[in-house]
Amino acid sequence: MSRVGKLPITIPKGVKVGLNDLEVKISGPKGELSKTFKGNIAISLAENKLLVKPLAANKNARAMWGTARSIISNMVTGVKEGFKLKLEINGVGYRTMIKGKYLNLMLAKSHNTKIEIPSDIKIEVPKQNIIILEGTDKEKLGQFASIIIKQRPPEPYKGKGIKFENQFIPRKEGKKN
To answer: Where is the Large ribosomal subunit protein uL6 alpha-beta domain (predicted)?
Structure first.
């Protein structure tokens, strides 16, 4: 029995849900999301609650049960409230700015790095070393944040690089004579 999968998803006011076999369309004040799931699960809507159930008792169906429930729950939260990620840039001379539809990163490389901003993600740069990402799709937001972090991941000796706001970077001691 999946602890996550067996819980019903309550649909808040202002959010509409459409079901077509294994395709779920959710729309709300922040936007619209849709996702098609693979077999082995059944999704049903009853009295403003979505229920996800496995169709078989095999391992794959049980694994997808909790995963599908979590994805749908994140979709409902995304269209109702949205998601927000904050990234910090640490390092001398490391800074960022937005130019048109590109995020321009200056990370002590021989060239500036340009990353195209997806249309469904909003970016703010309140300071040169802070990036705030906002969007309705938690999966796309996390993937875009990882693309940014991959440009200069935090290193353990001086802590320079791009990291999530409250992420702990374990420090290492330098070379000894």
So the answer is: 11-82, 91-163
Same domain, yes or no: 18 and 57: yes
Q: Which domain holds residue 62?
A: 9-80
CA-closest candidate to residue 11, choices 22, 26, 21, 23: 26
Pairing of strands 95-99, 83-90: unpaired
CA distance 105 to 93: 11
> What is d(CA 135, CA 133) in angstroms, rounded to the nearest whole number?
7
Indicate the angle between helix axes 138-150 and 59-80, nearest 10 degrees. Answer: 90
Q: What CATH number does residue 48 fall under? A: 3.90.930.12
CA atoms of 58 and 61, how far apart (whole Å): 6
84-124 tens-digit pLDDT: 999 999 999 899 999 999 999 999 889 999 999 999 999 99
Domain final position from 80, 112, 133:
80
Nearest-angstrom CA–CA distance, 21 and 5: 18
